[in-house]
Q: What sequence folds into this?
């Protein structure tokens, strides 16, 4: 069975600082994918970034990057130059083997990020 | 370009009542799924579908039924509502190929069971 652990219930960061949100995972599947989603206070779920387990490079999408350390089973989200609009709940998620897309995800408990001006 | 549309946005039920949460997508996505979100527990998969006529159970399927008669629609039925089903429900869809790893969510449906 797959499991995602996010150990930071809440984080407080000053605007313009970089922030790292932790995510560790557990799986016995040789092939898997890792995702990060953002949930603002309005409630919608917004896809941020994806990393495949066989991808050689860490994924990046604008100010978001995924620090993938396979041996440590970690997939931390790094947000550079944080903005007030980054205040939200952030979820790490994964899919397992034999699943080629995002239709069957396991989510972590989430981290609430607050950006202070 | 509506994306994934869920109705209703809010619903209050009494224990034992049944209801259907509607979900429709206009992106011609093959895959659709239902999640519930409870405080402190993240999202958990209820049921998912890999195409019209094909559904499968997720992590927490008990008390819910689904069907997929068309590519566009994926309703979630609560057979006999219980207070433990009070939650926020999200429908989501994703395509195949290049879009497979981008899960598009609906706005959510908040259900309260008294």
A:
């Amino acid at each position: 069975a797959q499991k995602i652990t996010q150990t930071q219930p809440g984080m407080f960061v000053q605007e313009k600082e970089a922030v790292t949100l932790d995510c560790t995972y557990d799986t016995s599947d040789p092939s898997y994918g890792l995702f990060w989603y953002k949930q603002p206070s309005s409630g919608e779920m917004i896809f941020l970034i994806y990393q495949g387990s066989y991808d050689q490079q860490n994924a990046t999408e604008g100010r978001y990057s995924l620090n993938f350390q396979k041996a440590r089973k970690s997939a931390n989200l790094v947000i550079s130059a944080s903005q007030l609009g980054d205040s939200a709940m952030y979820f790490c998620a994964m899919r397992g083997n034999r699943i080629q897309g995002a239709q069957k995800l396991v989510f972590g408990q989430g981290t609430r990020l607050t950006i202070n001006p | 370009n509506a994306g994934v549309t869920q109705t209703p946005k809010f619903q209050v039920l009494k224990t034992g009542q049944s209801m259907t949460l509607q979900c429709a997508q206009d992106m011609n996505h093959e895959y659709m799924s239902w999640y519930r979100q409870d405080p402190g527990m993240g999202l958990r998969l209820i049921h998912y579908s890999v195409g019209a006529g094909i559904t499968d159970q997720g992590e927490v399927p008990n008390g819910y039924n689904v069907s997929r008669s068309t590519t566009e629609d994926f309703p979630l039925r609560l057979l006999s509502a219980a207070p433990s089903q009070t939650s926020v429900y999200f429908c989501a869809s994703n395509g195949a190929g290049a879009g497979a790893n981008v899960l598009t969510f609906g706005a959510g449906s908040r259900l309260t069971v008294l």
